[in-house]
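Hey Z.,

So I finally got round to the pyridoxal-5'-phosphate thing we talked about over coffee. Here's the setup:
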Amino acid sequence: MGKGIINKYSEYLPINNKVSNLSIGEGDTPLVKSRSIGRTLGIDSLYFKLEGCNPTGSFKDRGMVIAVAKSLETGNPRLLCASTGNTSASAAAYGAAAGLETIVLVPKGNIAIGKMSQAIAYGARIISINGNFDDSLNIAIKLGEDQSRFTLVNSVNPYRIEGQKTASFELIDELGDAPNYLYIPVGNAGNITAYWKGFKEYFNLGKSTFTPKMMGIQAAGAAPIVQGSPVSNPETIASAIRIGNPASWSTALSARDESGGEIDAVSDDEILNAYKRMAREEGIFCEPASAASVAGLIKHVHKGFNISSKTVVCIITGNGLKDPPIANSLAESPPEEAAPDLIKVMKLIDKRG
Ligand SMILES: *Cc1c(COP(=O)(O)O)cnc(C)c1O
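And the result:
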């Protein structure tokens, strides 16, 4: 446990031995069986993979450890990324661990407060771009062309995909075979690309007897793949998937088509409903973007999908602590107040039943 993905899966990763000990504990995330949502949907084997349990609270750490390890191998100086938040948190953490400078470009005013706090704490240089994520990524990609100055660690960096595919390995190692359906939020579409790559590789090695249907879920206000054209002003409360022109668009389409899956969109109301249910019925506090996978599953079952006898996994991509204001918005009223007096507190509790 906690050995990190390079140690655990080195034979499937493009890594040289000399940096193989880079890890801050990524991978080996819990696969938790649903206690409530699965029952209400009539699905016996519904699981949540808790990627928010990675060191910086999102799956981004799986790819980042490989991207940074490769940067160390080649001796590149600094890390650079554009980010809706989690990539910058992860880059900053692994940059710190590896002793590399990290520069992050974030869309001004559009990054969840917990993620910004992480980038600050890990000591990244933060440049706030007066534009959206897609603008920030375009600049990062241009700067990253000068590989003698920067290692671009966005998911267009192929090593990110290599690291992220290890989550598929873990699923098959733990379930004994592939799940039938994989529900996953889609933003820049690197993660759905990575999972599909991992599933195909393990299948080709004979570690699973089939591959899952890849069910990618976008937010309705940021659903370019569903609509078939880029969205110039993507809008959703799920900031991690507020992306109008996904970098891995074509590989997401391949994942969908080769697997016989679907890419669909859910509204912010559906996302918030799933977010709340995950916390209140499952005890799992996730990011709004992560709840999109669950919202997509709920939508599909309500639409009449018959998958009750199937093994279904929802990828819970990030931790709820990243975005406290969204959680606070669920409060129906401010906390009740009482004097520091036992009897008064007891009376207050009884009054509300
Ligand atoms: C990055 C991220 C996503 C989207 O993943 P892509 O690879 O961009 O599709 C979803 N949820 C969370 C929490 C993320 O950090």
